[in-house]
Amino acid sequence: MKSVDTQKFTEYYRRKHVTGTYDKQREGTEYRRRKRALELKHFLDLIDKREGEKVLELGCSSGFLTKYLGKVTAIDTSEDMLKITKSKNPSANCISADMFEMPFKSSVFDKVVTMRVWNHLDEKDLRKAMKEAKRVLKPKGFLIFDIEEKSATRRITSFFYKLLFNPTGYKIYQYSIPEIKKILNEEGFKIVEGKTLRHKVGRQIILKTQKPN
Predict the structure, then answer these.
(1) Residues sharing a CB contact under 8 Å with residue 39, sequence separation 6 or more, in sequence order
(2) Domain assignment of residue 141, given as a range
(3) What pLDDT sits at residue 199?
(4) What value, to the nearest 5°, has the Cα angle with vertex 74 and ends 69 and 75?
(5) What is the domain-level CATH number for residue 21?
(6) What's the number of domains the chain is made of?
(7) Beta partners for residue 195, in sequence order
(8) What is the 3-state secondary structure (H, E, C) of the chain?
């Protein structure tokens, strides 16, 4: 069962005003466009999609990443977001599904990726999402995701930014490197590689992790 916070998160991204402005909000300035382009490059480098691999994207949203993944299975709980994603990548298999209870058999995907989704999860829900991702991954499969590194300065800056500009976007949870390493270790994942994206304030950490045999 999802937490109350996660249920609110799901409902939030189904709202028309969020769906309709999502891309514009995230690429509305030159700084944001440059940051998003670098973020995309980091993710694609870590995914390193090979011929014949089965890749699953969790919370594909408006398809910013999905667009570049070719044949991929992409899930989201928003039907409107899925329509946008499908228009960007017609070869994607877009499915309305919940990342906490996915309609897939165990050990079927080579790679699972999620971009700017798990940073909206508290530790309890993050662990639930990892467990479900681990279930659908093949042995030695890869999980690629990002976190916002814990930073008091970034939390304060984000608070005032939201007050001034009222952007779309849900609550962000931050994790220190030792915290995320501990969670990954306890959930049975090993860090293989990582990338760092520096914001004006704080850092986004993108991790490639591996499921054991």
Answers:
(1) 115, 197, 204, 206
(2) 4-210
(3) 83
(4) 160
(5) 3.40.50.150
(6) 1
(7) 206
(8) CCCHHHHHHHHHCCCHHHHHHHHHHHCCCHHHHHHHHHHHHHHHHHHCCCCCCCEEEECCCCCCCHHHCCCCEEEECCHHHHHHHHHHCCCCEEEECECCECCCCCCCEEEEECCCCHHHCCHHHHHHHHHHHHHHEEEEEEEEEEEEECCHHHHHHHHHHHHHHCCCCCCCCEECHHHHHHHHHHCCCEEEEEEEEECCCCEEEEEEEECCC
Q: Is 69 within 8 Å of 47 (Cβ atoms)?
A: yes
Of the candidates 108, 94, 100, 96, the residue with the CA atom closest to the CA atom of residue 141: 108
Question: Which portions of the chain are predicted below pLDDT 70?
Answer: 1-2, 4, 6-26, 28, 153-170
Position 3 scores a pLDDT of 74
Tokens encoding 4:
């109350």
